[in-house]
Amino acid sequence: MKYLDEYRDPELARRLLSRIEEIAPGDRVIRLMEICGTHTVAIFRSGLRHLLPSTIRLISGPGCPVCVTANEDIDRAIWLAKQPGVIVTTFGDLVRVPGSTSSLNVERSNGADVRIVYATIDALQIARATPDRQVVFVGIGFETTAPTVAAAVKQAAAEGLVNFSVLPVHKLLPPAMGALLEEGNLQLNGFLCPGHVSTVIGASAYEDVVNRYGISCVVAGFEPLDLLHGIYLLVECVVKGTPQVLNQYRRAVSRDGNAAARRLMDEVFEPADSTWRGLGPIPLSGLRFRNSWRRFDAGERFSMPVIQVREDPACRCGDVLRGLMEPPQCTLFRKVCNPQNPKGPCMVSGEGTCGAYYRYHTESL
Asked: Is 0.90 topped by the overall pTM?
């Protein structure tokens, strides 16, 4: 049962669960982390956690790009929204994430021009339609969205648009995986790797993690059977003691990924140190503009000052993202923090772990 061709067959699901139960050790816990917000939601929605043997523990990691965006980057976006003549554009979830003292949503209610877009190209169109205003796109996301931002920047340059810029806060996933393992607190046995990101970077991008830390990585799709199959492959690797990269999601992910998308991303951006919520600064885990494209960097265009950042000590999103605690262990969960009144990004985002627990985890009621 190395690979499957059918992903909606209940009988296959039963067989996979039976195989997992057969090979799962009874004397130790196998700790597997999914690092994809879509995986987190799919796992909760399908009830996979409750179907697995008690010795297989699934841990939600930093797989939500909105959630891992640091307070300082939220504050920078808020500062830009307050500048005269500026239109800030971004994806919907980010608008509601609290910064140190405000949010983009609050600033919008105070008169700032903050607009939700569904793609970078939408922000480019706003810039075309409002040549007398400066349009800033807040570029969040992992390697999946960075090529689309690079394409929009190149298009803006080709058209000679001087009123379009980007606040780049993209994150690169493999360095964060290494940072989690360097911490040493989680004692992880395997990573369930994201399908979307892997379509761009390829399954081979995780080989350094496997070789350096001796831990298996399995790229998985998003159907419940995909996830169950990915978990089975990881458990099998752990039991056999054979750390490796396996690609369960072969119908969408290749070994080397999307070369054209990576070339586009590498042409405009270069790796840079970046701060992650919960994980702190991680070397070469983000992207910044290359010198030849730096005129599109909103931080430089607007001479952004150093902003004093303040964290809410009661919000435990950082610990949730690191896999050190589950949302019900936070004193704010459900009592104060909920989707209507989120205190942190893990409750705001549709891919956030706190939001997934709130919607689907009945034991936390």
From this structure: yes
Measure the CA–CA gap between 230 and 218, rounded to whole angstroms. 6
CB contact at 8 A, 322 and 295: no
Q: How far is CA 226 from the centre of its chain?
A: 19
> If you ran DSSP here, which 8-state letter would residue 305 be given?
P
- Look up residue 303 and give its two tokens: 């001479």
Q: Which residues pair with 115 in a beta bridge?
A: 89
**Per-residue pLDDT at 26:** 87
Burial of 152 (0-12, 13-18, 19+ CB in 10 A): buried
Predicted confidence (pLDDT) per residue in 114-136, tens digit: 999 999 999 999 999 999 999 99
Could you report the per-residue pLDDT of 265-282, keeping only the tens digit for each? 999 999 999 999 999 999
Residue identified by tokens 């500062």 is 79
The DSSP H or E segment spanning 59 is strand 56-60
Q: Quick one: how far is CA 305 from the chain centroid?
A: 27
Strands (E) located in the chain? 30-34, 56-60, 86-90, 113-116, 134-139, 164-168, 190-193, 216-219, 245-247, 269-276, 280-289
Angle at 361 between CA 64 and CA 314, to 5 degrees: 60
Pick the CATH number of 10-64+183-247 from 3.40.190.10, 3.40.630.190, 3.40.50.800, 3.40.50.11750: 3.40.50.11750
Using only C-alpha atoms, what is the Rg of the chain? 21
Asked whether 170 and 145 are in contact (CB, 8 A), the reply is yes
